Amino acid sequence: MSTPTPHSTLTAARRRRDEAAQRPIASALPLDSEHVLSINESHERCAALGLSRIGAPDYSPITRSDFALTRERNRRLFSHAAPVMELLFEQIAKTQSMVVLTDAQGTILHSMGDEDFLEKAAKVALAPGVNWAECTKGTNGMGTALVDERAVLVHADEHFMHANHFLTCQASPILDPRGNILGVLDVSGDRRGYHQHTMGLVKMSARMIENHWLNDDFRDALRLHFHSRVEFIGTLMEGILAVDHDGRILGANRSALDLLGLSGAALRMHTVTSLLGMPMGAIIDHGRPPLAAPMRMALPNGHVVQVQARCNWPLWHGGWAATPSLDESNTTSATAAPEPATGDARAPISRGAKVAEDSTEPATPAAPSFADLQTGDGQIEAVINKLRRVVDRDIPVLILGEAGSGKEMLARAIHRESRRAALPFVAVQCASTPETLLETELFGYAEGVFPGVRRKGAVGKLVKASGGTLFLDEVGGLPAGLQARLLHALQDKRVTPLGAVQPVEIDVALVGATDRNPRELVDTHSIREDLYYRLNGLAVKLPPLRERTDLRTLVRRILANEGATAPQLVASDVQSLLEGYDWPGNLRQLASVLHTAAVMAAGEATITREHLSDDFLYEASQRQVAGNQAAANEPAPGHPTLPGASGGTLEELEREMIRQAVDAADGNISVASKRLGISRNTIYRKLRWRTAA
User: Fold this and answer.
1) Pairing status of strand 397-400 against strand 538-541
2) For residue 158, what pLDDT band results from cuts at 50, 70 and 90?
3) What is the pLDDT of residue 102?
4) Domain that residue 607 falls in
5) Is the pLDDT of residue 183 over 60?
6) Number of domains in the chain
7) DSSP 8-class letter at 28
8) Which CATH number covers residue 297?
C-alpha cells in the first residue's frame, strides 16, 4: 500500500472542502423550514451561476459617474429613507452593526453604522457604490430579499461566500403603493451580535418608508386609514388605501393588504364600494366633518374594521384630485406637488396622528414644511432659521403668539421636518378639556378602571405620541393637579396609566404653545416653574398678522387651497381693505373671511366687496374710520388739543348709537340689526363691550 504524499493529501482536502461548500447548509439558528428552504434555494441559484464560495469576490464598486447617476435616480427613495435609517440606527447603536439602503438592483446607496464595524464591512466592500445583488455577492440579506421579494435573514455561514460568514444580515424590501420594489433596507452586523428582534425593527422601518411614499404619492387623494381596532389607526399597524373620486383604488400599503387578506392584483379588481360595502358619497359625507368618528365597515371576509377618511377636504370638495392611477404613476421619479402654506387654522394639519372614537383631533392633510411657511416675512424667516438649528436636538420648543397666529401649524411643521415625521403628531388642548377628561386623555387607563364601552382600557396621548411629537396647546391651561404628574412623565420618559401597575416607556419630542406671557404664567402660579423650564428649551414668537409683511402671499395661497372653482384674484379695493384691517383673529380669521368669499364667488374670476360678509365689511370700515379719526385728531406740532373739544371717542359714539337702536326696537336684536344694517353678532359683541366697560 502506497503512502500518500503531502501534495495528494492537500488535494484531497481541497476537494472535500469544495464539495462541502456546494452542499446545502443547515442553519445554526432555530429557524423554520421555510427559511431553510429559502437559503438552500438561494445557494442552488448561486451554484448555477458559477459563483465560488471560496474564491475572492468582486469588490470593485461601480464608477463614480454611474454611482452619481444611480443616486440621482433614487433621490426620492433616499430622502424618505434617510431619516428612518437614523431612527433605526439609534435603536441598534453600539451593537457592532450598520444600516444599509440599496436600490432595486442591489447597489448600496447609503449606509451608517458603528465606526469599528464599518472598517470590518469595508474589507468585504459592504459600502456605498458596491452592488450586492445575489448574482454578484451570492446569498446575502439584501440580494436575496430582492429575489424573494420578502424579508430575509441570512446568518453566518448561510452566506454563500466564505468571506461573508462573519456577517448576520436582516433585510426587508421597500415597496411602492403598487407593489413594485423600490429598494431594500438592511441591518448587517457581526454574527456574534445576532438578535431576533432586529428583524422586527427592520420590517417596521421599511413600512415607515413605504407609508411616507404612499402619502407623498397620494397627498391630494382621499386616504382611508383602517384597522380592526380603532387605537391602531395612526400607527404602523394601520392599513391605508388611496382612492379617487370614482372609488377606484389608487394604491395601498402592505398593512392594508395584510388586513384585507388580498394581493395587490386582487385588490385592483375591487372598488371602495365592493370592498367596504359603502358608496363613495356616504364615505365622503361621513368623513368631511373635522370631528368625525371612525366608520365601522364590514370586509368581504366578514371582518369588521374602523375606517377614518383623510384628505385635503377643500381641494377634494372643490373637485380637484390630481392623483395618478395605479398604471400611470412613475414610482421612481414622480414628485408630489408642493403643499400650499395657507396658514389656515380652520384645518389644522396632521401626519400620522391617531383619530380615536373619543378623540378631538380632526382628520387632516399633511403638514407644511418650513419652506412652505417662508412666505417673505422677515419675522417668520427668523423663527424658521432658529427652529432649523434645534430640530432633532432633543430641545423642547415653546411657541408664543396670539390666538389664530398659526402656533399649531408651526408645531406640525417642526414635526414634519424632524426624523420623527413618520410617527404620530399628537395634539393636546390643555385649556379646553375638563380636568377629569384631560387626565385620562393624557395618561390613559387600564382595563376595568371605568365601566362601559371602553372598559377594556384606553391608550393615553403620551403613549400615542411615543416616537413622535407631543404638542401641548395653551400650556397655561394645564390643571395644577396634573402638572406634577406630567413633569415626572416627561422627565422619567415613562407613564403609568390610571389603574395600571406597570409603567410604559415613552419617547416624545415636546412642543408647547401659549398666547400668554410665559413669565406671567409662572409669576401667577398658572404653571409650575420646574414644568415651565422643562417646556421652554427654545421660545419663538409668531408675529400677529397685522405685523406681517406677507399678507398678499398668504391671500394667494389660501385661495389656491380653496379648490378649482374658487377665484384666484382679489379686487384692488378689497386688497386695500384686507391690508388696512388689523386682524384681531389673525390667520384663522383671514382664512375664514377668504373661505366665505371664495364660496360666494365660486365660478367667478375675482373676489369683490360683494363677496365679503356684511359683518366683516362693517368691522373693517369702522376700524378704518377709527384710524382716520385718530389721525385727524393727532395734534400738529406746537398745537395742543383743547380739553372738551371732542364729544367722546368713536367707539363710545358707536356703542351709544347701537344702544339707542336696540332700545327703539324694544330690545329686539333682529329688528335693530336690520335698521342699522349690521349683523346680530356685531350688536351682541358691541353690547358685551359696553357691559364690560
Assistant:
1) parallel
2) very high
3) 96
4) 545-629
5) yes
6) 5
7) S
8) 3.30.450
